[in-house]
Amino acid sequence: MSRIVAGAAGGTPLVSVPGDGTRPTTDRVKEALFSRLESMNMLADVRVLDLYAGSGSLGVESASRGAKSVELVEFNDKAAGVCQRNAELVNKVRGRKIVSVQRSRVESFLARVAEAGVDQWDLVFLDPPYPLTEDELSLVLELLGPRLSPYAVVVVERSSRTPEPAWPASLEMFAEKKYGETRLWFAEPAG
Predict the structure, then answer these.
(1) Does the pLDDT at position 176 exceed 60?
(2) What is the C-alpha R_g of the chain?
(3) Is residue 104 included in any domain, yes or no?
(4) Is the residue at 139 inside a domain?
(5) Number of domains, the chain
(6) Whose CA is closest to 66, among 37, 88, 86?
(7) What are phi and psi of 136, to 5 degrees?
(8) pLDDT, position 4
(9) 125 pairs with which residues across the strands?
(10) Residue 88 belongs to some domain of the structure
(11) In a domain, 5, yes or no
(12) Percent over 90 (pLDDT), the chain
């Protein structure tokens, strides 16, 4: 069972997505990831975007640890419903609506916010499903680039067997870390 590791809602069990349509981030990977983000001062008072959110565990963990706002983007109906339930758990603990859920395809969501001129994000998680091609991931990263704050961090989580993402000119990788079958890539705005 997945849980919120630390922060205001630390220890709270999360609702899981039924079936095999998602691949939850293990608590071990989540603890290591958030330890790194905390050391980079990337959790307190930041705007977070969790794309391909699944159960929303990375986004709600961010909210528990002090994020200013979190948007969970998930297209699958069941998973979006689970995101909503997990968002409500953290929003209740934090005493206000920190986490919101968008039921949408990631590409459509990013196109809409670009047209609307939505504020920029400081921390973005991408944990796309395995069937997503490298070209599709590259397109999402390209759409994301202009929507980032100058000091943003983008974390891409994939199978350790997949190649490094093809970064658009707007992003450059600064670190990667392997945890068993999971690999994390960290990128920041170029320049």
Answers:
(1) yes
(2) 15
(3) yes
(4) yes
(5) 1
(6) 37
(7) -65, -40
(8) 79
(9) 50, 155
(10) yes
(11) no
(12) 73
Task: Please answer whether residues 87 and 58 qualify as being in contact, where contact means their C-beta atoms are separated by less than 8 angstroms.
Answer: no
Instruction: Match 């989540």 to its residue by tokens.
Output: 30
pTM (two decimals) = 0.93
Contacts of 126 (CB under 8 A, 6+ apart): 51, 52, 137, 140, 141, 144, 154, 155, 156, 157
Per-residue HEC secondary structure of the chain comes to CCECCCCCCCCCECCCCCCCCCCCCCHHHHHHHHHHHHHCCCCCCCEEEEECCCCCHHHHHHHHCCCCEEEEEECCHHHHHHHHHHHHHHHHHHCCCCEEEEECCHHHHHHHHHHHCCCCEEEEEECCCCCCCHHHHHHHHHHHHHHEEEEEEEEEEEECCCCCCCCCCCEEEEEEEEECCEEEEEEEECC
Q: What is the pLDDT of residues 139-174, one digit of tens each?
A: 999 999 999 999 999 999 999 999 999 999 999 999
What CATH number is associated with residue 185?
3.40.50.150
Which residues span the domain enclosing 123?
A: 27-189
Residue of 142, 121, 140, 145 whose CA lies nearest to 129: 140
